[in-house]
Amino acid sequence: MSTKKNKSRDFVSVYEKIRGLLRDIFIYGCFNADDLSSRLNISTSKYNQDLRKIRDIVDSGCLECRRINNKDVNYFRINMFDASYNVLFDTYMAKSFTDSEVRLYLKLMQIFSGYPGYLSQNEVEEKLNPLENDSPESITVYRRLVELEKSGYLKKQKRKVNEYALSEDIFRQLNEDEFDQLIQAVDFLRNNLYPSVCGSFLHDTLKRYRQKRWGRDDDKVYFYFKHNHFAHVLDDEVLWNLLAAAYQKRDVAFSFQESQKDRSYKNVRPLAFFADEMYGRRYMLAGIEPQTSQTKVFRLDKIKNVKITKKSSGWDERRLDEQVSQQNKQSLTGGCDGFSRKPVKVGLQLHKSLVKRVCNEIGDLVINQQPLDEQKIRLELEVNDPVELKPWLRRYTSVIVIEENPEHSLREMMAAELEDWRNLYGIV
């Protein structure tokens, strides 16, 4: 985490305000202020303001600037192959808070740390008065007590009124070796379980606890991951809200980027989540039409401003479960454009030496194999949406032939994409 000191540090009230800028700087790192302002549809002054907020949080050694054609281009000097820490975790610390919120939190923890028993809200407010020049309102104290109790810092007992006390130290029973093993387990799981921001903050908290209890600050790195896509972190707040809605079986509303424009979606039911770890894409399968149980897949990095609604739209739960099951059977990543159309067949021609490898990767989609001659094999696939095969097919551009099919335009799309590459880079 950054140790940079800045008395004039700026914060943001909503993380979404800097999410798009962070993504473009991290993934591309080749755009100047004018380019990014145009891409994000913001003014140059807004771009400079948001960039300053990011620089206040991120370690100065990770976010750098270089001059290209007499213009400043900002880029992150980290990547998932040689960095052990994802600096994008730190960007969530840009969220704003007020002095009174911080002061009240510290005073409450001070009161409970110095008192061995339970305290009611009235008793807490009595102890707060000598400590605060401007005492907070009762409703504010109540909300903070509830937050601390839900977060596990306080425990509660119910008598005539709710009473609170400081929670026991659950790690006191662990010795130093056992605690080290716990940190290593969390270090591993935070890179494998989503949302990973939660695991990263827990890992940092455990390290601070070890330093305070045993006086040891060990920065040894135990795990590196080949496809630990750092940019996933930018979607963790969105994913957290969507997971909460899926667990509670409630609908959500959000905006979704489609062809450089945002489209609003309402009464959407999150159903399942899928990850393409090779290319770093994550998807959500969701119901979009309660009466027909029609579903659609959304890429998480294009979802913005998620709000969980108070009521559900009367979905057929059995039908939704069937949709998820069917989706998994005929999908490479779990993603497609919905069930408004039937699965289609895709024909591929390849050398027989590749058949075993291909079937290991997409075997569930293969419904037929047919030899064409002594060297070539034809595979027939059945998929919900041929478009989702594009990232996988890019690895085999020169060795797999896609057959023409009037039901889809996968062959034409891949050919057009290849022509774009030739125009950009020439023939290699």
CATH topology call of the largest domain: SH3 type barrels
* Structural class by helix and strand composition: alpha+beta
CATH architecture of the largest domain: Roll
Q: What is the residue-averaged pLDDT?
A: 85
- In total, how many domains does the architecture comprise? 5
How many helices in DSSP terms? 13
In CATH, what is the class of the largest domain? Mainly Beta
Rg for CA atoms: 26 Å
Proportion of residues in β-strands: 15-25%
Reading the helices and strands in chain order gives: HHHEEHEHHEEHHHEEEEEHEHEEHEH
What does this structure look like?
The protein has 428 residues and is α+β, with helices and mostly antiparallel strands. It has five domains: 79 residues, Orthogonal Bundle (Arc Repressor Mutant, subunit A); 68 residues, Winged helix-like DNA-binding domain superfamily/Winged helix DNA-binding domain (Arc Repressor Mutant, subunit A), CATH 1.10.10.10; 50 residues, no CATH class; 96 residues, SH3 type barrels; 82 residues, Alpha-Beta Plaits, CATH 3.30.70. The chain is 37% helix and 22% strand. It has 13 helices and 14 strands. The strands form four sheets. A five-stranded antiparallel β-sheet has the order 9-8-7-6-10. It has a four-stranded antiparallel β-sheet with strand order 12-13-11-14, with helices on one face. A three-stranded antiparallel β-sheet has the order 3-5-4. A hairpin with a 2-residue loop joins β1 and β2. The longest helix has 19 residues. It is globular. 21% of the residues are buried.
